[in-house]
Amino acid sequence: MEFLTSEPAVVEHKTLIIADLHIGIEHEFYRDGINVPSQTGKMAERIEKLIKQTGVERLVIIGDVKHKVPGISWQEEKEVPKFFERLSGLVRVEVVPGNHDGNLKDLAPGVKIHKSSGFLLKNMYMSHGHTWPEPEFLKSDYILIGHEHPVFEFKCGLGYRWLEPVWLRVKLDKSRLGRKYKNVRKVPELIAVPAFNPFLGGIAVNRSQKEELLGPLIKCTDMKRAKVYLLDGTFLGELGKLRN
């Protein structure tokens, strides 16, 4: 599995995997009185560049292509179809719907929409992370999820604070999974994918409590043992040793 340097993206099996675009979030900012230009075109350009650099044949977005819940905003209605049309000309595009992706099929002609519970791709399982995956995920070596928007809070002696997106890698707990699934023998490694949209907020994992984590599967882990990586590949350490 290849983690792309300085981008929240993974390449494996000729597939580029990203999460949490939240196209249309600028419409919400606008309603709150904040005028922010649309980032959809810039995100499409970044994805196009990654596709050409890596030579992949497929793009899988593991949830939250759009932002508005419930319904569809005018911005999403305008931009999401053009976004998919642009990328579908380069590779096959597939989506695992997230909790923000209601009515996405109406905006995505020609795009393969999987079940919201995810799907198995050889040794990897793709899921947004907001719901329980199918039992077949236990056959995988890795399960990739979005939904959490993990970030790390840095602070200096002068009191300045800033957030950086991070990858989280942690083993699932067999006993906790056993409360949901039968005959749990193999335990995949969970990988939380940072959000692709840089305008999104996130959960600062080094200051959050476990109950603040969003999805059911990530709660089946010992987060103190989660390994934390910056987008440039820097290993920060195990989360239990990094909490504020």
Describe the overall structure:
With 244 residues, the protein is α/β, with parallel strands linked by helices. Helix content is 17%, strand content 25%. The protein has helices spanning 25-31, 40-54, 74-88, 174-177, and strands at 2-3, 10-12, 15-18, 58-61, 92-95, 112-113, 119-121, 124-126, 142-145, 150-155, 161-171, 189-192, 203-204, 227-230, 235-238. The strands form 2 sheets. Strands 7, 8, 9, 10, 11, 12, 13, 14 and 15 form a 9-stranded mixed sheet that branches. A 6-stranded mixed sheet has the order 1-2-3-4-5-6, with helices on one face. A hairpin with a 6-residue loop joins β1 and β2. The longest helix is centred in the N-terminal third of the chain and has 15 residues, at 40-54. The protein is globular. 39% of the residues are buried.
